[in-house]
Amino acid sequence: MFTKRKMMAAGIVGFTMLSVTACSQGGGAATNNPNADSGQTIAATAAMPAPFNAGEVHVAIVQNTGQGDYFQQYLNGTKLQANALKMKLDVYDAQGDNATQATQLDQAIASGAKGIIVRHGYADTLCPGVNKALKAGIKVVIYDVEIQKCAPDAVQTQQSDAKMASLVLDQMAKDIGKDAKVGYVNVLGIAPLDRRNLVWEQYKKDNNWSQKFFTGKFSSSTATDTAPMVYNALQANKDVVAIYAPYDELSKATLSALEQANMKSKVKVYGADISAADIELMRADGSPWVATGATDPNAIGAAVTRVLALDLAGELTTKNVEFPPILVTQQMLRDKNIKNMDDLRAAEPSLNISDTASAAWIPAIKF
User: What's the whole-model pTM score?
Assistant: First the structure.
C-alpha cells in the first residue's frame, strides 16, 4: 500500500481513498462506495448461449489502480453487469504498481478464469501476460491500453479520448481566446492521457497558447501527490489564466492547488471525467472548474463486461469498441440544477449506453 499524505488543502471536500485488497471476489456493488449506483437491469428476451447456459462463468478484472472516483464507478458497473450475467468475478487491484499488475494478470490466468478484463496500465508490461492468456484460450478485453500492436488478437475498448479533449478545448478556446498563458497538468505514457495530449498539442498550436508549465503524477493517490506539484508551478507562473487537467484526479489536484495559492478567481480549470463528487466541486460557489469531457464510468464498466460476454459467447464482431463522450459545463450544471449523476443522466440521456455491446440474451445494466 502507498502511504497516504494529508490533502494539501480543503478544496477536495469529501474525496476519500478506499483500501482495496489485491484480489476480491463477487459481482455485487462495492460496500460503502459513494459511487455505487444501483442501476436498473433490463430483462433479457432470449435464452443465454454457451457458456452462460451451463452455470456460473469465471472471469476476472485486472486493474492498474482502483482508486479515484472514475475507477470506483467503473468497477461498480463491472460488478453489477457481471452479477446480472451470473459471472464469478475476481477483482485484482495493482494499486498503481505496473509490476504488480503483470503478476496479478498471471494470477488471473492461473485461477482458471475464462475471460479477463485488463483495465489501464502499460502495454510493455501487460503484453506478455495478455498473449499468454490468449494462447491459453482465455478471452481478453482491454480497456484504455494501446495493446493491439503487441497483442493483435486482444479486444480493445476505450472512450473516444480525442473527442473528449476537443469538446473541452473548444470550450476553453471560446472562454480564453488566443494568445493566452496556460498551464497543463497531465501524465504521459498512459494511453487515454496520451490521446488527449495529442489534441492538446494541436489546440495549443492553433490558438497560440503559451504553456507556462507541465506537471502531474499518476499514482495510487494521484490527486494528493499532484496537488503540491501544481502549487509549486503556480507560484512560479501566477499569470496563467487557464489550466487543462484531462483526468478528474488531476483536476481535483489543480483545484486544491489553486485554493492553496489563493488563485481560484483568476484561473479557469478544464478537465475530464465526471462523478457525483466532481459535480459537487464544479457547482461550488467560486469553483474554477468550468468544463469537463465525460462519459458515465458506471455505464462503461458495464458495457466492457458485455463486450467480454459477447466474446465468450462467440458473438463479438469487432476487436475495437469506442464510447462517445459529452461536454459538461459548470453553467449547464447550475442552470439545470444538476446535483448528482442521476440528475446528469436525466439531462443527458446519451450517457446511457445499455444498448451498446449487447444482445437479446444479455440482461443489460442501465444507469
Answer: 0.86
